[in-house]
Protein backbone atom coordinates (compact mmCIF):
# COMPACT_ATOMS: atom_id res chain seq x y z
CA UNK A 1 0.00 0.00 0.00
CA UNK A 2 2.80 2.38 0.90
CA UNK A 3 4.51 1.72 -2.47
CA UNK A 4 1.26 2.42 -4.32
CA UNK A 5 0.87 5.75 -2.55
CA UNK A 6 4.47 6.69 -3.35
CA UNK A 7 3.99 5.76 -7.01
CA UNK A 8 0.78 7.80 -7.22
CA UNK A 9 2.48 10.78 -5.60
CA UNK A 10 5.38 10.64 -8.04
CA UNK A 11 2.98 10.37 -10.98
CA UNK A 12 0.98 13.35 -9.75
CA UNK A 13 4.09 15.45 -9.30
CA UNK A 14 5.28 14.52 -12.78
CA UNK A 15 2.02 15.66 -14.35
CA UNK A 16 2.10 18.89 -12.35
CA UNK A 17 5.66 19.51 -13.50
CA UNK A 18 4.78 18.91 -17.16
CA UNK A 19 1.79 21.25 -16.90
CA UNK A 20 3.89 23.94 -15.26
CA UNK A 21 6.51 23.61 -17.97
CA UNK A 22 3.86 23.82 -20.69
CA UNK A 23 2.48 27.00 -19.08
CA UNK A 24 5.93 28.54 -19.00
CA UNK A 25 6.50 27.61 -22.66
CA UNK A 26 3.12 29.09 -23.61
CA UNK A 27 3.87 32.31 -21.74
CA UNK A 28 7.31 32.60 -23.36
CA UNK A 29 5.84 32.15 -26.84
CA UNK A 30 2.91 34.53 -26.20
CA UNK A 31 5.17 37.56 -26.57
CA UNK A 32 2.32 40.08 -26.86
CA UNK A 33 0.64 38.57 -23.78
CA UNK A 34 -2.70 38.28 -25.58
CA UNK A 35 -3.47 34.88 -24.06
CA UNK A 36 -3.03 33.16 -27.41
CA UNK A 37 -0.13 32.27 -29.69
CA UNK A 38 -0.33 33.65 -33.22
CA UNK A 39 1.39 32.11 -36.22
CA UNK A 40 4.01 34.87 -36.14
CA UNK A 41 4.74 34.09 -32.47
CA UNK A 42 4.85 30.36 -33.25
CA UNK A 43 7.60 30.99 -35.82
CA UNK A 44 10.04 31.28 -32.89
CA UNK A 45 9.66 27.50 -32.40
CA UNK A 46 10.15 25.44 -35.59
CA UNK A 47 8.21 22.37 -34.44
CA UNK A 48 5.29 24.49 -33.22
CA UNK A 49 5.16 26.42 -36.50
CA UNK A 50 5.08 23.13 -38.40
CA UNK A 51 2.16 21.82 -36.30
CA UNK A 52 0.34 25.14 -36.00
CA UNK A 53 -2.50 24.53 -38.47
CA UNK A 54 -3.18 21.04 -37.10
CA UNK A 55 -3.24 22.38 -33.52
CA UNK A 56 -5.52 25.32 -34.37
CA UNK A 57 -8.72 23.31 -33.90
CA UNK A 58 -11.08 26.26 -34.35
CA UNK A 59 -9.05 27.63 -37.30
CA UNK A 60 -9.00 31.16 -35.90
CA UNK A 61 -5.29 31.67 -36.56
CA UNK A 62 -4.35 31.54 -32.88
CA UNK A 63 -3.55 28.80 -30.40
CA UNK A 64 -5.32 28.84 -27.06
CA UNK A 65 -3.79 27.17 -24.03
CA UNK A 66 -6.07 24.19 -24.68
CA UNK A 67 -4.92 23.86 -28.29
CA UNK A 68 -1.28 24.37 -27.27
CA UNK A 69 -1.61 21.53 -24.74
CA UNK A 70 -1.82 19.13 -27.72
CA UNK A 71 1.56 20.28 -29.06
CA UNK A 72 4.06 17.48 -29.41
CA UNK A 73 7.45 19.04 -29.43
From TrEMBL:
Q: Which Pfam families match?
A: EF-hand_5
Q: Does the keyword Signal apply?
A: yes
Entry keyword set? Signal
Keyword Signal attached: yes
The protein's superkingdom reads Bacteria
Q: Where is the signal peptide?
A: 1-22
**Listed PROSITE patterns:** EF_HAND_1, EF_HAND_2
Domain EF-hand span(s) in chain numbering: 43-73
GO-annotated molecular function: calcium ion binding
What name appears for this protein in its UniProt entry? EF-hand domain-containing protein
